Input
Amino acid sequence: MKKYLVFGASLLGIAALTSCSDTFRPAEDGDGEGRLMLKATVNSDVVVNTRAGQTNDELAQKTLIWISNAGGAVKKYNGIDEVPATGIKLLSGHYVAEAWAGDSVSASWDDRYFTGREEFDITKGSAVQVNIDCKIANTLVSVEYDEKVTQLLTDITMEVGHDKATGTRDGMLTFTQEKVDQQAKAYYMTNSRSKDLVYTLRGTLATNGSAFEYTGKLENVARATEYHLIVKHTDQEEEQIGGAWITIEVDETEIEVEDTFEITTPPSISGVSFNLSEPVAGMVGELPRRSLWIAAATGLTEVVVKSDAFATIAGLGGDDFELFGMNDNIKSVLEAAGINFTYETHADTGFSELKLNFEKQFLNSLPEGDYQIAVTATDANGRTANASMRVMPTNAKVMIQDIDPEALTITSRSAVVGGSILRDDAANWGIMFRKKGTQQWTKVAAEITDGNSYTVTLTGLEPATGYEAAAYCDGFDSNVIQEFTTEGEPQLPNASFEDWSTDPNEKNVLIPGVSPSDFYWDSGNHGSITMDKNITEKAEDFHHNGKYSAKLCSQFVGITLFGKPIGKFAAGNIFIGKYLETDGTDGVLGWGRSFTARPKALRVWVKYTPAAVTDVDNNNPDGVAEGDMDRGIVYIALVDNTKSDYKGEKWPVIVKTKSSDRSLFDKNGNQVIAYGEHVFTEATPGDGLVEVVIPIDYKRTDVRPSNIVMVASASKMGDYFTGGPSVMYLDDVELIYE
Output
């Protein structure tokens, strides 16, 4: 019996997991709410054989789950680990649960893809059990040769894949003899364009050494179906193929279900009525009771609790304990010290929950200090979760909150810092700060107070500088100090274009860098040099500072043959990155370099002289026509860590100018964090370079940039080989931070 992966989701809608007692946390459902519990079942054979080293956890990370209603998706989880082990609260209504697991690739020996869909309803107080069977979405192909075929043909292969006429790429796999001997299976993804698979049998006839080839087609192949190609040799002349007595039979078999195992969300550890990311802080002897809630989609097998705070508990004999394995004596010692727990499992769903209580008796026995209580929980599926609770008994009135050194609220010249109010007699609180290594504090009063927390924005800071900060209030300066370092304000290498070199191995192409192997900027010169032209030049006649500037000269690059021009229009350009390859008469470029700072604007010095458009690609999106005045452009983008591959090189942006395979930068793309541009619609005033400041607009403030892209072109539509003989001088590129 053949096997495939089954993704099973157990979805249970209930009004409350438990009663509203102190033993366990209630579900806290609102009016009309239910709760959904989710887990998955996966075929063990699939996980073992997909590829070496793949674990259940890795497959779980590739399980995408959407829950939708008539208004669209209401919950999205990128990996099952994102699904709360405590359940998903949903309002009453009709829903669809969908799941996608694995990797969706055109053709692969290893990557498989599974999908499933199930509708369900949530009503207040209902108990709904929903199972999603996520069946394999691939079409499988395997190959077999009978003994007579291997005697007749040598060097035999079977190539199987998508019909290239449909435009499908990278969809072909070759069954070598080794693959056939291994009984390998190939996995294909089909769609509305590629419903057929083509196969080509190749080999050498042992009788005369001539090449043998035969091509056939599997039409309208189905998903979750294996097509077993059996190549046979017969004596029936009417079945002759290509001069040999060979037939190809196709055994079509629907994939069937067999063994399964579960993958589940890992346990969840959270604070009951408090946030674990914030310390349990208060006056010595006046700390409140605190409880941790551990929830798991299956039974818990081990919970280890460890802290220096336990060393003083008489009779414990160490600084840690394990809840399920400890004897009654240790349990009594802990209960006497003020530490206890309750545990419950739910037979209908397999869900389990544990509440670990730290009573006032224990917390208020701790002397002033800073304690970490670490908890590691493991469930029956081997999934593990780790968390810690920070306990800070103190006599302080206020205390600074932990500062994340990677926080986005720390910029090159400012930082947002928080504090906590620990006593009722605290007044006029704030944050004091100083440069690391100095003595004098600067105090800044709080701007915003929310309950027992407040925030302060520290300004006037220096870039790439370490600082210390602490909390204060009237009559009290805390000695608890947090450190942070402001962002730097980096500038771009060779931003004044003083360094230039030539590559003798490439017809002396001009490169804006120290050497052909040491450069930050590049240009289209690598393409135009094939016609002995550098469209981007080193210029001395116009510059702002230093000796040189970059001169971008748009022009037709080619030759005249029999009275007709042969070549292409090339826009004078310069960009951060590398010219990767010339594809015919078109360029392939890698744009962007690593960059994590957050400038506010870009300053450049430019002299621009436009010309009338002489060359036009009618597909240019701006609708530029011959005779229109050309336009220049300078733009900058900060992008995330997304990268594209071109022949083994990875770049933030891959640009291809070939019309049949054109791929250009999209300023509105998802990878763009910030963007700014200036379009030159006329000549710049005066005889020299003028200052142009380009504000950078941040579309996303929740993520730090990973790469920077900057491009200057004397012809805005140069990617479409459209423009005229315009000239742009560019000098002194500068990033502005405040």
In short: The helical segments are 44-50, 56-61, 147-152, 177-181, 328-337, 360-363, 525-528. The chain has five domains: 11-136, 139-254, 266-276+288-358+373-383, 398-485, 501-736. The longest strand covers residues 384-394.
